[in-house]
Amino acid sequence: MTMLVYFVLASAAGAVLRYLADLYLPRRGILLVNVIGSAIAGVVTGLGWEQVIDERVALILLGGFAGSLTTYSTVALTTAQQSVERPGKAIMTWLQHVGLSILVCYLGFIAVISLISVTTP
């Protein structure tokens, strides 16, 4: 039961942060949370890969916090609206979100793996 409570709290925190980012940074808030959430996913996955983080904590951080922080449904809606008005803008928006998110996820994963391999004798 305790894990469920932590999961719900992490999910709520991620959702609130996403809302605030979109509210206070209307043009770039969603991009920011998608990139940050993807970076968190890369780091947590790297920590899990190296068995540095407990599996339950990883699930709470990935599925709860990062999962509710990121939103690709909003990106899909935005690009669908843009595709009618300015198709080139829609493609750039999608590439920014997906491309940057994949890049920071990969970099977070590689950074953790590299740091752990350097510090482990």
Structure description:
The chain is an all-alpha fold. It has one domain. The protein contains five helices and no strands. α1 packs antiparallel against α2 (about 30-50) and α1 packs parallel to α3. The radius of gyration is 16 Å and the shape is flat. It starts with a helix and ends with a helix. The model has no long low-confidence stretch (mean pLDDT about 90).
What is the structure about, briefly put?
With about 120 residues, this protein is an all-alpha fold. It is about 90% helix and about 0% strand.
State the total count of DSSP E strands: 0
Distance between the termini: 38 Å
Tell me, what's the shape?
Answer: flat
Integer average pLDDT: 92
Alpha-carbon Rg, integer: 16 Å
Question: How much strand?
Answer: under 5%
Order of helices and strands: HHHHH
| Largest sheet composition | none
Helix percentage: over 70%
Features:
mainly alpha, 88% helix
